[in-house]
Amino acid sequence: MADRNLVGAPVPSAPHWHPLWAVFRAVTAHPRKVLCLWAVLLAGCAALIPLLQKDSSPDAYIPPEHPAVLLRQQTDQMFGLYDPVVVLIDTKKPGGIFNPQTLNLVQWYTKQFASVENIDASRISSLFTVSGIQGKEDGLEVAPFVTDVPQTEAGLAALRDAVMDFPLHLGTLVSRDGSATVIAAPITDPKAGGRVYHALMALTSRAPIHGEDVHVAGEAVLGEYLGEYLDKDAARINPVVVLIIAGVLLASYRTWRGVFLPGLSAVFGVAVALGAMGGLRVPFTILTNVLPANVLALGVAYGIHILREYYEQTATPPGPRLRETVVNVMMTMRRPIIYATLTDMVGFLVLCVTTHLPPMKMMGFFAALGIAATLLSTLLAIPAALVLLRVRPSPAFHRELRDGQHWDRWAHMMSLLGNVVLRHPKAVIAVCVLVSAYGVYGAGHLEVNDDRAGHFHASEPIYQANDAINRLMDGTIGVDIVVDTGEPEGLFRPENLRRIEALQEHLKTIPHVSGSISIVDYLKQLNRAMNGGNPEAFVVPDSEELTAQYVLTYSFSGDAPLGQVADSEYRIANVHALCNTGLFTEIDKIKIEIDRYLATEFATPDLTVRVSGRLNVYYAWMQRLEFSHFLGALLALVTVWVMTTIGFRTWVAGFYCVIPVLATLLAVYAVMGLTGIWLGIGTSAFASIAVGITVNFAIHELDRILHLTRRQGMSLEDALRAMYASTGRAVLFNFLCVFLGITTLTLSQLPPLQWFGILLATALLVGFVTSIVLLPALLLVFRPRFLLPVCARKETAA
Amino acid sequence: MKNVILVFVLFLGIGAGNGVSAQNTELPPGDEIIRRANERDFGAFSQETIHMKLIGKDGKARERVTRAFNKKFGEERRYLMVFVEPSNVKGTALLTYDYLESSKDDDQWLYLPAMRKSRRVPAGERGGAFLGTDFTFEDIKTQSRISVEDYSWKTLGIGDVDGHPCYTIEATPLTQELAKELGYAKVRIHLDQELLLLRLSEFCDDSGEVTRTISIRDFEQVGDIWTAGTLEAKNLKTGHSTLFTVTESDFTTEIPDDVFSLQSLERGLPNLPGRP
Description:
heterodimer; A: alpha+beta; Multidrug efflux transporter AcrB transmembrane fold; 2 domains; four-stranded antiparallel beta sheet; three-stranded antiparallel beta sheet; 11 strands; elongated; B: mainly beta; outer membrane lipoprotein receptor (LolB), chain A; 4 helices; 43% strand; globular
């Protein structure tokens, strides 16, 4: 029975019961009520959109219950660690920062920091606030390095000697070559990072700068700064998407209903998706920023196919009554539209299932919800609107009458393309096989990588600031190695301290780990200071008692930084290291090397060690990225194959639908591998989405071909010619809508979204081409039996 | 900057009879109440044992026990604090000369038995943590005498602390720099209306939120001097708290001058007649 496969058999004008037929009858009987309900739902969902809350923090990319996140929170809490906002002052002057002008600038910023709203003024770190531990002949001195800017050469030289002779702050407070220094502080409200950044940039514009380079950065402002991009991106991309899609729709049918009916259906889907996110308090992240463009671009495609059928049926006189025509149109298109929707949803839902990144899960789920809502709107609101509108032919369908069909220049163009395929099917297949083979080769060169700083363009000040910190200081990515001795004051034992010292020595040998600090450094410095500043005394204290007494001594100073390197019981130490790269491939190597060292050197029951910090969180981000990406792509392929197999009632037809999609993926991997585009956080989402979208082209084509061959008894060649001019034309506009809509993501200011847009658009382009040329070519060469009418198949079998 | 530290003996200290009548309905100005509270006799010398309990947010506690001595030398006071427990710091001693002139910093020497050496060590900042506890050096100082000239004073009214009527006085550091140095924007102090003993201090940040409290309890009169038995500082931001328990207070046993010398610093705990 034709009703049981995707073949859109025209529904007779006589009553013909089917659940959807009953629905379409009801909808067309009460169109105003349906449209009122639609408008109420749209308004209700739109009202929830303002409740959307942004979350651009790095922790948004990983489940809050992930062990890496929990461990980092625990470590931060235990040692009072925080993500700072940082001003870096870099100078090329001889003698580095140790000149009156630069020191004045440092002092100026130190004072101004306190006046910036949302900066914790009690925890500002700079040369003017941080204490050094220095040994004098008769004792110990713990005091800020400088309180007033020295004005003499001797004073400046003494300051330089004091700072450069204090290893604990080299690389973190002052660069190891003395050419740069930082002023850093925590912010009191994590949501205020963007405001703090702008306040510091405003300060910088009136700072007493005399040739110094000043950069503002820090994890505390990075996330919120990124959040500002979300607003800018949304304001830039969404209107362009709407304009482009409206333009394509107008070109497609040259009628306003051809623009507004598919367009408003897609807008309904976007409103439902965003309204649900707002109502359920699901944060809006960088990744969910692609949702409106995706749902809009995909959503209009369903309406395009409905209207193509509507214009075709209303253009052929004498037509039945309008209501019957609309019901016929909907019954004809119901299966391909529903299947196209389901396959689109599959792409997003698979993403939702396979990814470990919460924002991507949310993007997958709510995009699928938006698409489902668009389908609902397409199936109910469009027929309701069509029966209320007077029949007016589309100018695009009146250009020419040929073979009983109304062709325009697009239909001609597709027909010409079809002729080429019909003449050279083997050549088409050969080219596609070559491209796919090249894709396999390219996939082998695929690099799984990302860089958080790479979320900004290299021209952005915050990118340059991050780069400067990584270049001049010890780095921006922290790793905390938490060593638990298992007993109170276990850190006073010399043997434990020496193992921590050895760990720090090993960290120095790992590429990109620039420096580390622990309680051992403080104790060595105290030992040196208590021994008159003798450099040879910069060693671990040789007895438990001496260590305990040094710790007590340090507490007399009123300075309390030991809290950042040891817990209050002196049972647990924190070895805090900094890495000067944000590249995940390098982070991966660092984490593996640290784990290897700890597994061999700390594999004793007396000490337990855990690796924490931002580095560990980033490491966790990327761990399953490659696996979940390929799993997602595979799962999407298998699902669409199963769906098309069920729809066409033969696994062979499903196979033919999937082949162009597979070729598409391989072609995109080839592009990625050969151009060096990373498979990263942003780009990893493209594959399963691309599978879901591009298979639609094949579904629409095969559905039409089957209808023409099996129901109308056409030869395959004739069916293909007819398909190119009608369905091929609709698929072209479907492709143009989705492709141009997705291409607007390249207008984003965020490189990951740009890359995502480029990859998905590339996939769509290749998917369209392979579907429109490879699928017919395969059918022509292999002539599968499922194309034959049922009776012919029986005869052949007999 | 003037740091007056290690004045444990003065946690107390107020001569009986300095009290303000609870029946007074006219509330005196804040600075006047503070001046009266500062007019007290700390005694010429004293010694006591202080149990320090540092309690983390997780409830884990570290304890130290010290024996503290002080004696007035003309216009200055000298303090000696010797650690008794835990064993790994036993014998560690700190000698402080607290000068009256505010322009002169305290002098401090530390003896570490593991090094068998004494070293001069710097005095902490006023707002700095006292021995890594939740008390600041300024807190310790204000237990004995409060710098009237550093703050603007306002009597807010009479409240109740642990069932005792108290003057509630708001002190605001006179300058931003001072507020920064002290680590708070305002402090509300609650002074016992009758005895003028400091019972509660509440430290506020710029937004007026209380970030730290110090409560002083278990007062006991030793001779003419009131001494506090328990002092508890709570950091409401970190959840950390510190409990000082003062025992074996002795205001009568004479302490020889040489106990407060560098030479005796290295000899360890003074063996005095009054020592329990």
